Amino acid sequence: MPRYYEDKPEGGACAGVKEDLGACLLQSHCVLQEGKSPRQCLKEGNCRALKNSFFECKRSMLDARSRFRGRKGY
């Protein structure tokens, strides 16, 4: 379950999304049942929505417009 801003972890702009992505991967069928590493499961396409959210968050940190306006969402 996404945690958004409740108990937001310290350590950067995208830390919440990163933590949710890690939790999603560790709880996925790929890791628990098949015994693969989270990195392999991420490459296979598990937790795709959180992966895209994390990518957009990281990209927004480089975008000059969003630096002044603030990140959207998360």
Automatic annotation (TrEMBL):
Superkingdom of the source species: Eukaryota
Stored InterPro entries: Cyt_c_oxidase_assmbl_Pet191 (IPR018793)
Family: Belongs to the PET191 family.
UniProt protein name: Cytochrome c oxidase assembly factor 5
Keywords: Disulfide bond
GO cellular component terms, A-Z: mitochondrion
GO BP, one annotated term: thymus development
Reported function: Involved in an early step of the mitochondrial complex IV assembly process.
Pfam families, A to Z: Pet191_N
Species this protein is from: Myotis lucifugus (Little brown bat)
